[in-house]
Amino acid sequence: MPRTGESSGSSRSGDRYARELERHLDWLDTFSSTALGVLAAASGIYTYLGVRTLLDNPGLWTTFAALSYSIAVSVGIFVFWSYMMRLLPAVRSAASRVGLLLTMALGCVAIVAMSSWLNAAALAGSAAVETHMANTVQHYQASLERAHSNAVAGQSLARDVARVRQSFDDLSQQEAGGTLSGFSGRGAVFRVLTQKGAELQALEAQLAGVAEPIETTFADGNAILSRMRGTSVEPGPLEDRTVRFSEDAVQLAGLITQLRQLNPAPLVARAAKDLSDAVVLPELDGSTAEMRAGQSSTINSVLSLVEQRASTLTSAAAEVEALPQPDEAVYAPISAADAVIVYAGNFVPAWAGAISIDLLPAVLVFIIMVVQAAIRRGRGDHDSDERMTVGELRAALAAADQLRRADSAAEAPRALTKPDS
């Protein structure tokens, strides 16, 4: 007997606990649909703003298309979460619950795909495009500095050329004094030396001539870079800034290409090859066979020296040409919706807000699931009919009254026809 009383008391306590939770759910249910509608409408508004960034052509039909899409998203979100909030907490079997959870996960993925990324575009689209422009500026700056560095390295070959040219000038002066061939004068050996010295002097003049264009082009590129940096952060309509940024990017790409063409390293390599290959041998002008033999021997030595100096210049030019080349700098305009995906890591708060506004009802679904489970545990296996609203009580009393009237009407004829005893 005590056990039965304890069980009965526990059952009554569980019913009271369940009824208390149900009263809370009834009160919360009065505004849950309104709150869900507000969340769906807010998501639809940001979805509309995100869609407008993808549609380039302004006009009535564009506005209608964006509005239709955003309304469809709002309705879809509201209906989906309404289904989940009603059905998922109500099912009891594990299979049904797992099936609805998988359905909810699939629906969440669909909501993120059709709405959340557009919400993120509306929240951080402009900032993402500005980030893209800032990264592009850094890319162009690295390419410009690399091209300028390579061009300056090529122009510095002028020192190597001057050193080789000075060696030939010194040898020609020695030959004029008779030190090389042993016969003083400006004969065949002198003419070979001055010939190569003149070629190197012309090359040196060409190298000196590219110094000013290199620095001018580099200064123009830096000026454009400064203008691009200002365009990426200045206030104003994003579309206009993007157009101006694209124009500057095209101009800067041309300057980078020009710097690559101004690099004189290939010119030095070709000139070094011609220095050893193209030799015009003068006629030996010695008055005696001994003098001509000395001139021939000296010219052969000079030609060997020319090959060595040409090899030195070729190696120096090859080192410059082997330097890392600037990357191909190309600016690709990007929409706000695409920018927030490409630079998603830079806008985690915006993505979190965009996804939360769509998936926040999932938290409500889990809350209702927990409360419904607690109600079932408190009530136990039996069903309680004690939870009735005033309307349900009135309907039950009216139905009972109608049944009594029907019974009375049926019994009256039988009472009249009953024979007297």
Automatic annotation (TrEMBL):
<feature type="transmembrane region" description="Helical">
    <location>
        <begin position="61"/>
        <end position="83"/>
    </location>
</feature>
<keyword id="KW-1133">Transmembrane helix</keyword>
<feature type="transmembrane region" description="Helical">
    <location>
        <begin position="27"/>
        <end position="49"/>
    </location>
</feature>
<keyword id="KW-0812">Transmembrane</keyword>
<feature type="transmembrane region" description="Helical">
    <location>
        <begin position="95"/>
        <end position="118"/>
    </location>
</feature>
<feature type="transmembrane region" description="Helical">
    <location>
        <begin position="350"/>
        <end position="371"/>
    </location>
</feature>
<protein>
    <recommendedName>
        <fullName>DUF4407 domain-containing protein</fullName>
    </recommendedName>
</protein>
<keyword id="KW-0472">Membrane</keyword>
